[in-house]
Design the sequence.
């Protein structure tokens, strides 16, 4: 099939590369000329395992091209995917201005039947607004359909997730749209395909993300209770998660959820449900618990180091999760400025995301970006772990101990066994498990 796609960010780039890999001819548009130039040269604009190989091979096979000119894609395609951003507005609603802009662009170029497919995560009923926008501008007689085909890929494993989905959701209100999307997917995938209405598909995506966020906040609430009861949250999570009705994924206590999707999608669902008169108290608690994780971690840092000005702190990880350079919604955006404001000296390391973080927080006399975890540990009074990169799991902690001024680790991701860190000679603070601390005072929790 000839496919067009608007927006080559994290979701759109993976989608366009993978659709080309499935044998379709994809023309992807981005309004950012730098992104288009780099992608046309085969240079990935995001860090995503497996992406570069597929990008170059599909460019060489002439199945994939990038352009800033919308007409190149709209006129040449039967189906147009909308993958532009839907970031949060300051009032918590999804900002749909990029989606509206695409609708207006398509309306000005309609030259025959097109299927316009929402892949961006949008509030329920957004398709109605797109339909209305296009009809108003292009005329009621124009032939097109709007469908919803939400994307469930996860950054860090996005290529694998796209090519091996656990389900595909197709929201279509016309037979023509349904059969076009079924043709696209049925020949390539044997996973369950849920065919439903457009509004249902839109809601499935937002509800899925809200549920995942709820699971994370739930285990973090249990984690706080575990600390009071001297119980290890990891064991509790295992005991809960082996129940197949619950499942083990997303039951890792720690710094909470971040990224460009979960926080904004919970927030948008709260606004949509709230304005429909539905009680959204539960989702507000999910948000509140998540935001409080930052205070929880900073409390541990203070307890571990007491006076913070001029203390050297190595920070490991700024991306919101491992295997990505994405820092949107990352806990590091909350933790690092607050540590910096205490007067501490910060040495920050991340395997992929420093370039993005530097734009937000340029280096200064108390904040530097270093080339390895060992450099972050050198002369440090404490190491603070913010992202669960695999690389951190396999660090040589014997070497780290000799590099550090005081062997203190504050682990926001519960990467290590407290007993092993104690045996390795560290004071070790984590979340929801007993702290290994030489602190002279008994712990007094704030009430
Ligand atoms: N990032 C993820 O892991 C993920 C997963 C599933 C769904 N989603 C959803 O996909 C959507 C996109 O997310 P993202 O993370 O890729 O966003 P992003 O901000 O990384 O990318 C958006 C891209 O769209 C481009 N753009 C904006 N307006 C345009 C226009 N009028 N014409 C052409 N290009 C335009 C921007 O230049 C940018 O490159 C969001 O709704 C998000 O919720 C994201």
Sequence:
């Amino acid at each position: 099939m000839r496919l067009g796609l608007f927006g080559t960010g994290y979701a759109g780039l993976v989608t366009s590369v993978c659709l080309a890999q499935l044998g379709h001819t994809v023309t992807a548009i981005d309004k950012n000329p730098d992104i288009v130039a780099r992608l046309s040269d085969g240079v990935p604009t995001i860090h995503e395992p497996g992406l570069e190989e597929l990008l170059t091979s599909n460019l060489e096979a002439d199945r994939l091209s990038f352009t800033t000119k919308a007409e190149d894609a709209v006129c040449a395609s039967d189906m147009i995917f909308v993958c532009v951003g839907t970031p949060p507005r300051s009032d918590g609603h999804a900002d749909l201005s990029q989606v509206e802009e695409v609708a207006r662009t398509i309306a000005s170029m309609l030259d025959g039947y097109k299927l316009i497919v929402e892949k961006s995560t949008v509030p329920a009923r957004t398709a109605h607004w797109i339909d209305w926008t296009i009809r108003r501008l292009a005329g009621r007689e124009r032939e097109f359909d709007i469908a919803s085909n939400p994307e469930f890929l996860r950054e860090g494993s996005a290529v694998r997730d796209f090519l091996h989905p656990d389900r595909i959701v197709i929201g279509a209100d016309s037979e023509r749209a349904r059969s076009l999307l079924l043709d696209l997917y049925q020949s390539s995938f044997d996973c369950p395909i849920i065919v439903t209405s457009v509004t249902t598909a839109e809601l499935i995506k937002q509800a899925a993300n809200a549920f995942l966020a709820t699971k994370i906040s739930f285990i973090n609430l249990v984690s706080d209770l575990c600390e009071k009861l001297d119980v290890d949250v990891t064991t509790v999570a295992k005991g809960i998660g082996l129940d197949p009705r619950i499942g083990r994924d997303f039951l890792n206590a720690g710094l909470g959820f971040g990224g460009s999707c979960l926080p904004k999608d919970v927030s948008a669902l709260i606004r949509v449900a709230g304005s429909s008169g539905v009680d959204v108290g539960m989702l507000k608690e999910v948000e509140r618990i998540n935001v409080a994780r930052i205070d929880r971690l900073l409390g541990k840092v203070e307890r571990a180091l007491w006076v913070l000005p001029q203390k050297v702190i190595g920070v490991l990880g700024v991306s919101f999760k491992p295997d990505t350079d994405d820092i949107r919604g990352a806990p590091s955006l909350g933790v690092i400025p607050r540590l910096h404001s205490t007067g501490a000296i910060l040495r920050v390391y991340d395997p992929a995301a420093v370039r993005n973080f530097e734009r937000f927080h340029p280096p200064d006399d108390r904040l530097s970006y270093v080339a390895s975890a060992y450099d972050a540990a050198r002369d440090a009074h404490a190491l603070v772990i913010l992202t669960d990169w695999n690389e951190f799991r396999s660090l040589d902690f014997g070497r780290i101990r000799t590099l550090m001024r005081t062997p203190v680790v504050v682990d926001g991701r519960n990467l290590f066994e407290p007993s092993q860190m104690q045996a390795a000679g560290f004071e070790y603070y984590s979340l929801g498990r007993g702290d290994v601390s030489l602190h002279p005072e008994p712990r007094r929790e704030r009430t």
User: Anything to note?
Assistant: Residues 6-12, 29-32, 35, 83-86, 98, 101-102, 120-121, 151, 153, 155, 260-261 surround nicotinamide-adenine-dinucleotide (CB under 6 Å). Residues 198-447 form a domain with the Rossmann fold fold (CATH 3.40.50.720).
